Amino acid sequence: MPNGVCGMRAFLSHSSANKTLVSSVYDALEKDAAWLDRAEIEWGELFLERISKGLEACTDFVLFWSSASANSAWVRLEINMAFILALHERSIRLRVILLDNTPPPLYLRPYNFLSVVRSANLAKDIIAALTPVLKEPVHSTRARFVNRHDEFERIEAAVDNPDVRAVFLFGFKGIGKSFLAKEAIRRTSRVLTMCKSI
Fold this sequence. Notes:
This protein has two domains: 2-133, Toll/interleukin-1 receptor homology (TIR) domain (Rossmann fold, 3-Layer(aba) Sandwich); 149-197, no CATH class. The protein is built from eight helices and five strands. Helix 1 (19-28) links the parallel strand 1 (10-13) and strand 2 (34-35). It starts with 9 loop residues before the first strand and ends with a helix. It is an alpha/beta fold. Helix 1 crosses helix 6 (122-133) and helix 7 (149-160) crosses helix 8 (177-197).
């Protein structure tokens, strides 16, 4: 689409060291489903301005995290811009793909990750995970890669533990803490009701 205007589109943030993989993912996605610098920025254009416009026009920020991206000033800049949109305007969803065992920074840890570290076919597995989530309607920034069963299990374990007096949920605004709390209460209440009826 012209000028980076899009309806539902993913901004693919990555280090140039991962360019081949990310280009393969980009090429396999539906037309206009993703924003990639090589396809969107013409020679001579102001990179920062085009990146900013690309981010503002997208619904999803997909970060390809690796040792190379951890050391990339451009990737850090794109992450900062995405956080401004996610936290202040709630207009973009953050998704993180772990390409290697490089630990993500603290500010990315509240988000769920798609790890392809042990994948035999990186591009194929990433495309299989990205394709359905990019079609999800945009309700808020809480859309995630994977289900939240692990989080529910930790909450349920805490509730079942007689030594635990309170459970606190924390993280950035818009990542779904309220949803998680409501669903955990619903699940716990259902289990208690079932126990009472037995």
